[in-house]
């Protein structure tokens, strides 16, 4: 499904990703862990095509298509979804209007008819309930005045509505209490299927208690330095990331 | 002085004038025709008035727009002439409505109470209107009377015509009224439309001014409000621009504990000019004012905003906030904004802010990352900028209609 | 409570003494002859005389501006003397030992000893007394580094090419009414040139003193920072306590060539007049700098003196990526009136400007911020941030904000915010409850309010500015 080879990327002349490779098959859940500044958020931005993130080397294929050739919105329509760590507030644009535009853009890309207002409202209400958000959130401005937890749940609600094939969750657990974490995790788990893959980016192992990964990768200094199964996350939990420095120094 | 104004002054000098018109004439004779050094006209040229050619044949009768779901009492003026008789109107009890050109004693008393008394004397075109306005309406709501049906006053300008309309509205103590002033036109024409509103103790006025003149239709007008104790004003302005479109809004807190809310939206298409000058006078303590003006300025368009808040000595405990935000869509457009504070009392909370900005990269990226096309995302974000003020309008039917109108206009504008 | 604040604001002007110096002063009045005489006294080249005369010609056709939020009796330009210099300066003393001791004592009393060994290390001073420069210290040390720091009269003779090239290049001679007057009659001032790549080894400063009666001071400062150089320049001003109003109309021009940085700081403490508004300096000053590519000009001003202040230190951000800054504290009390602010003209791409203005009004004073931020059509990606805060002390004063914003580029971002506040009873109560007397409390609150600006001042000046506010706010509390 997603094939990343030797990805190098820079932001404002600073190279952040330095040869990252990753292969994800349909239905798999990959966790990416790593210390602050390792490039975890950058990976999501580069894959989704944010302005200012420049790919200097490497290839990325999504479902056999060259991802890096595409515009941000084309990548989204190709099935890539990024749940933001800090979703932006957009006053004046209602959540409802925003998501309806978005859902119908996806449907159009998939060759489906756009949803009518009534059909969309029905779906939106269901999704809203699923992530425990009150219905009036649909009428409010996008993320406007939402708490940190509400913003994260709003991201998951969008994921549910947009039905992507590859979901990148960027620290969807940060700043959440245990109840909110459970809601987010339930939302994600409800979307797991043999066709849909996930990249779960997190600093802590905690989220992985709720969303069981098939693989865990450690990202440090722009590269994946270690891969393993779920037990690797537990190891990190115990040891922290300090050993990375030693390992690298020893290697250098 | 322009030829146009000279003729007006010349004509008036040979007419019989009442006291207020004589005053206006004397004041006009003292006035200088504005140029770039005239602070009130620093950014807006009055040369379109000098170049305007009036007269000629009207080709068709303009039609007022229909606002779905708006249950209002409509009064239609075309080129400043009332198109209906007020004699057989059935009016709710406590509402007096008379044509300015046909006042009875009661109407005359209201007119005398208001005409030129609320509008400050320094507006050049206000003085012109004082001098030559013969048409208009006088409205009086008796104390304690609540009028539910909005009063919609439509003023259409057609080709080659010059018109001067005056509206005088008095709300007695505890009275309540909604007034919609709607101006439209696009052919070469010139209209001045000034309105004076007096709000009694605890009176409540919901007010809209839709200044939707475009292209060659020149409009210069004003809305002037005086608020007595605990009165409430909620006014919304929606403006397009034309070769010259200018509005002066004055709100005077004359009684304590009054509240004024003023929202303004301006959406300027290609080549349009709109100039809004607002002035809030806090003459007494304990008043509150919230003013929000937002504008989107397209190609070769020019927006001018001058928002003044004046806190007089002793007007302690005033709360006044003014915010002006602008979006410029083209490097051939221009925005000139000047929020002014003039404060003579220390125990007050006053703030103003003004921004000129482009769409935030983060917000655009967020929409793109959800598969929305760049052009659609720009429209949503730009429009979202004024959507907040549309959502804030108390009259839902009007808000829906305006939303459609604005969206329609906006979709024709080029977003870079 | 507010009464206590009022009393805490009772004025005291420490620089109000008169020096007993014998001077040669022109008779009052202004005509072409006076200008020729000034030029002749200075033995000026013909081009400069012509330049002055052209400025005078323009000035006569101009009208005194009335747009500022200032009210004062019309200035009688024929009642002012346009030149006054201590007689002892006639023979141009070669060293400090030849300078009239009374002059040296004057500066000592103002806390500016002119003997290098007594001075703050690292600050060179040009002392201007009425119409002439008395002395410029540390010249040798500066010249070793290639830095030129002398009076502008001297520069006209020693560096004619530099002066000719840059004089009037930023503030044209008929730029505005007061600048035109200055161009016609300027008598002295400072000249600074920092060569390519040089960082001035010390802070440069000029102290302006008006002493003589019925005279105006018209000084002209020109600072040129060549490519990649850096200089920090300070300016201070005082005058005796007199019943008449005296005119001060200065022009300052800054040129920051590619990659250069100029930091210009002012502590203005001209005599503000008495509590009834009698006397005091009318301060009409034009200050402007031009920034070439990647250059940076920073204006910091602490304005506590003058009966009238009319002053807008500005930046023309001509070069791409250039930066302009304006940090201002303006304190007006008694009957003082201030109308001050800045202009930031963004012409180049990615130019940035910051404006922080703190206005304090007390007594019967009026204090206005007036500013212009202009984004030209080519100012791609330009940014401005403006914050204007006003503090009102007492209910008889006024605080005003007149910001003009003009944008012609869709990618430029301008943000302007203004707020107003008072010294609240709660703040006063808290301070007093913690044992501070009301004077100290007010001065602490005001100092806190100004902190963002004070931190921009060079160390020596920050201390002085803080003290100046304290003196201004000091008084007997009942």
Describe the 3D structure:
The complex is a heterotrimer of chains A (252), B (416) and C (478). Chain A is of the alpha/beta class and 252 residues long. Chain A has helices at residues 40-48, 72-77, 95-109, 117-130, 148-162, 178-190, 206-210, 230-239, 242-251, and strands at residues 2-11, 14-24, 29-33, 53-62, 65-66, 80-83, 90-94, 141-142, 166-170, 197-202, 215-220, 223-228. In chain A, the strands form 3 sheets. Chain A has a 6-stranded mixed β-sheet, with helices on both faces. In chain A, strands 2-1-4-5 form a 4-stranded antiparallel β-sheet. The longest helix of chain A is centred in the middle third of the chain and has 15 residues, at 95-109. Chain A is globular and about 55 Å long. Chain B has 416 residues and is an alpha/beta fold. Chain B has one domain (3-53, 71-412). Chain B has a 10-stranded mixed β-sheet, with helices on one face. In chain B, strands 3-4-6-8-10-12-14-16-18 form a 9-stranded mixed β-sheet, with helices on one face. In chain C, strand 3 and strand 4 (132-136) form a beta hairpin. In chain C, helix 2 packs antiparallel against helix 3. Chains in contact: A-B, B-C. Chains B and C meet through strand 18 and strand 19 of B and strand 21, strand 22 and strand 23 of C. Strand 19 (349-357) of chain B pairs antiparallel with strand 23 of chain C, so a sheet runs across the interface. Chain A: It holds the Pfam family ABC_tran.
Question: Which features does this protein show?
Answer:
heterotrimer; B: 416 residues; alpha/beta; 10-stranded mixed sheet; 9-stranded mixed sheet; 22% helix; globular; C: 478 residues; 35% strand; Fe-S cluster assembly protein SufB (chain C)
Strand and helix layout:
The complex is a heterotrimer of chains A (252), B (416) and C (478).
Chain A: E1 2-11, E2 14-24, E3 29-33, H1 40-48, E4 53-62, E5 65-66, H2 72-77, E6 80-83, E7 90-94, H3 95-109, H4 117-130, E8 141-142, H5 148-162, E9 166-170, H6 178-190, E10 197-202, H7 206-210, E11 215-220, E12 223-228, H8 230-239, H9 242-251
Parallel strand pairs in A: 3-10, 3-11, 6-9, 9-10
Antiparallel strand pairs in A: 1-2, 1-4, 4-5, 7-8, 11-12
Helix pairs in contact in A: 4-5, 5-6
Chain B: H1 3-13, H2 19-30, H3 47-51, E1 73-78, E2 81-82, E3 95-99, H4 105-114, H5 124-132, E4 135-141, E5 151-156, E6 162-171, E7 176-185, E8 189-199, E9 204-213, E10 217-227, E11 232-239, E12 245-253, E13 259-268, E14 273-282, E15 288-297, E16 302-311, E17 319-328, E18 334-343, E19 349-357, H6 361-368, H7 374-391, H8 396-412
Parallel strand pairs in B: 1-5, 4-6, 5-7, 6-8, 7-9, 8-10, 9-11, 10-12, 11-13, 12-14, 13-15, 14-16, 15-17, 16-18, 17-19
Antiparallel strand pairs in B: 1-2, 3-4
Chain C: H1 2-8, E1 23-25, H2 32-41, H3 46-61, E2 84-86, H4 101-109, E3 123-129, E4 132-136, H5 139-144, E5 148-151, H6 152-158, H7 160-166, H8 177-185, E6 190-194, E7 203-209, E8 220-225, E9 230-238, E10 245-248, E11 251-256, E12 261-268, E13 280-291, E14 296-303, E15 308-311, E16 314-317, E17 323-332, E18 337-346, E19 352-362, E20 366-375, E21 383-393, E22 398-407, E23 413-422, H9 425-433, H10 438-454, H11 459-473
Parallel strand pairs in C: 3-7, 6-8, 7-9, 8-11, 9-12, 10-13, 11-13, 12-14, 13-15, 13-16, 14-17, 15-18, 16-18, 17-19, 18-20, 19-21, 20-22, 21-23
Antiparallel strand pairs in C: 1-2, 3-4, 5-6
């Amino acid at each position: 499904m997603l094939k990343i080879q030797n990805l190098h990327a820079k932001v404002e002349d600073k190279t952040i990703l330095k040869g990252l490779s990753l292969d994800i098959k349909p239905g798999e859940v990959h966790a990416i862990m790593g210390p602050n500044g390792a490039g975890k958020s950058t990976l999501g931005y580069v894959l989704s095509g944010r302005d200012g993130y420049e790919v200097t080397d490497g290839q990325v294929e999504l479902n056999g298509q060259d991802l890096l050739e595409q515009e941000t919105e084309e990548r989204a329509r190709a099935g890539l979804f990024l749940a933001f760590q800090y979703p932006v507030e957009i006053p004046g644009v209602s959540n409802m209007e925003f998501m309806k535009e978005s859902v119908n853009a996806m449907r159009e890309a998939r060759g489906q008819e756009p949803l009518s207002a009534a059909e969309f409202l029905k779906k939106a209400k269901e999704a809203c309930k699923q992530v425990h958000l009150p219905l009036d959130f649909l009428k409010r401005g996008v993320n406007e005045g939402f708490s940190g937890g509400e913003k994260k749940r709003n991201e998951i609600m969008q994921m549910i509505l947009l039905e992507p094939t590859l979901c990148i969750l960027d620290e969807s657990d940060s700043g959440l209490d245990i109840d909110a974490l459970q809601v987010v995790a339930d939302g994600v788990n409800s979307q797991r299927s043999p066709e849909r893959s996930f990249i779960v980016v997190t600093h802590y192992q905690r989220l992985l208690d709720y969303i069981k990964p098939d693989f865990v990768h450690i990202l440090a200094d722009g590269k994946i330095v270690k891969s393993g199964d779920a037990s690797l996350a537990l190891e990190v939990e115990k040891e922290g990331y300090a050993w990375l420095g030693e390992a690298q120094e020893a290697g250098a | 002085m322009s030829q146009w104004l000279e003729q007006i002054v010349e004509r008036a000098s040979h007419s019989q004038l009442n006291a207020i018109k004589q005053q206006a004439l004397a004041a006009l004779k003292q006035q200088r025709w504005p140029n770039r050094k005239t602070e009130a006209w620093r950014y807006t040229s009055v040369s379109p008035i000098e170049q305007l050619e009036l007269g000629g044949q009207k080709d068709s009768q303009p039609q007022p727009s229909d606002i779905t779901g708006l249950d209002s009492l409509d009064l239609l003026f075309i080129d400043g002439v009332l198109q209906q008789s007020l004699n057989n109107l059935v009016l709710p009890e406590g509402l007096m409505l008379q044509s300015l050109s046909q006042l009875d004693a009661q109407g005359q008393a209201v007119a005398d109470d208001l005409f030129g008394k609320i509008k400050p004397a320094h507006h050049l075109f206000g003085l012109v209107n004082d001098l030559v306005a013969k048409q208009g309406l006088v409205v009086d709501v008796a104390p304690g009377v609540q009028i539910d049906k909005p009063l919609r006053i439509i003023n259409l300008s057609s080709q080659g015509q010059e018109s001067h309309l005056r509206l005088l509205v008095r709300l007695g103590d505890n009275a309540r009224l909604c007034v919609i002033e709607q101006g439209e036109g696009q052919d070469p024409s010139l209209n001045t439309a000034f309105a004076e509103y007096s709000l009694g103790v605890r009176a409540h006025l919901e007010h809209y001014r839709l200044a939707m003149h475009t292209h060659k239709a020149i409009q210069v007008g004003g809305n002037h409000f005086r608020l007595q104790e605990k009165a409430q004003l909620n006014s919304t302005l929606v403006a397009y621009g034309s070769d010259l479109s200018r509005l002066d809004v004055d709100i005077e807190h004359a009684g304590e504990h009054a509240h004024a809310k003023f929202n303004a939206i301006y959406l300027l298409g290609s080549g349009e000019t709109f100039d809004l000058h607002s002035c809030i006078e806090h003459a007494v303590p304990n008043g509150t004012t919230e003013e929000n003006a937002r504008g989107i300025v397209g190609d070769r368009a020019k927006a001018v905003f001058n928002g003044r808040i004046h806190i007089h000595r002793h007007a302690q405990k005033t709360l006044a906030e003014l915010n002006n935000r602008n979006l410029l869509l083209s490097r051939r457009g221009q925005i000139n904004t000047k929020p002014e504070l003039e404060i003579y009392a220390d125990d007050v909370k006053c703030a103003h802010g003004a921004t000129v900005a482009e769409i935030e990269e983060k917000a655009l990226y967020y929409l793109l990352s959800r598969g929305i096309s760049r052009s659609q995302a720009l429209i949503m974000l730009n429009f979202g900028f004024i959507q907040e003020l549309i959502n804030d309008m108390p009259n839902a039917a009007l808000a829906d209609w305006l939303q459609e109108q604005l969206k329609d206009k906006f979709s024709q504008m080029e977003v870079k | 409570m507010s009464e206590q604040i009022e009393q805490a604001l009772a004025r005291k002007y420490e620089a109000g003494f008169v020096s007993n110096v014998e001077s040669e002063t022109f008779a009052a009045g202004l005509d072409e002859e006076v200008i020729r005489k000034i030029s002749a006294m200075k033995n000026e080249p013909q081009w400069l005389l012509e330049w002055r005369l052209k400025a005078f010609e323009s000035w006569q056709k101009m009208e005194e501006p009335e747009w500022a939020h200032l009210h004062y009796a019309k200035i009688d330009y024929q009642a002012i003397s346009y030149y006054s210099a201590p007689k002892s300066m006639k023979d141009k003393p070669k060293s400090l030992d030849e300078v009239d001791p009374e002059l040296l004592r004057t500066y000592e009393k103002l806390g500016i000893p002119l003997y290098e060994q007594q001075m703050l290390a690292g600050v060179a001073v040009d002392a201007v007394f009425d119409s002439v420069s008395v002395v410029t210290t540390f010249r040798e040390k500066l010249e070793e580094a290639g830095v030129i720091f002398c009076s502008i009269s001297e520069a006209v003779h020693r560096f004619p090419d530099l002066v000719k090239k840059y004089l009037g290049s930023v503030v044209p001679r008929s730029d505005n009414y007061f600048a035109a007057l200055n161009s016609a009659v300027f008598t002295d001032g400072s000249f600074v040139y920092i060569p390519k790549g040089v960082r001035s080894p010390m802070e440069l400063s000029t102290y302006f003193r008006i002493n003589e009666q019925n005279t105006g001071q018209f000084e002209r400062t020109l600072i040129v920072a060549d490519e990649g150089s850096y200089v920090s320049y300070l300016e201070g001003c005082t005058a005796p306590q007199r019943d008449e109003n005296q005119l001060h109309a200065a022009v300052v021009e800054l040129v920051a060539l590619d990659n250069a940085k100029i930091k210009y700081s002012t502590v203005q403490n001209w005599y503000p007049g008495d509590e009834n508004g009698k006397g005091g300096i009318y301060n009409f000053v034009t200050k402007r700098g031009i920034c070439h590519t990647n250059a940076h000009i920073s204006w910091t001003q602490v304005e506590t003196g003058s009966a009238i202040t009319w002053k807008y230190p500005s930046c023309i951000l001509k070069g791409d990526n250039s930066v302009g800054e304006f940090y201002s504290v303006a304190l007006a009390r008694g009957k003082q009136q201030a109308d001050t602010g800045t202009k930031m003209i963004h012409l180049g791409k990615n130019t940035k400007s910051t404006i922080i203005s703190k206005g304090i009004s007390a007594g019967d004073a009026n204090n206005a911020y007036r500013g212009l931020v202009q984004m030209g059509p080519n100012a791609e990606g330009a940014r401005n941030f403006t914050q204007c805060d006003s503090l009102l002390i007492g209910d008889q004063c006024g605080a005003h904000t007149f910001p003009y914003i003009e944008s012609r580029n869709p990618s430029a971002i301008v943000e302007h915010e203004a707020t107003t506040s008072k010294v609240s009873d709660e703040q006063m109560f808290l301070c007093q409850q913690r044992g501070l007397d009301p004077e100290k409390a007010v001065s602490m609150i005001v100092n806190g309010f100004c902190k963002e600006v004070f931190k921009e001042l060079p160390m020596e000046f920050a201390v002085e500015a803080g003290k100046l506010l304290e003196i201004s706010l000091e008084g007997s509390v009942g």
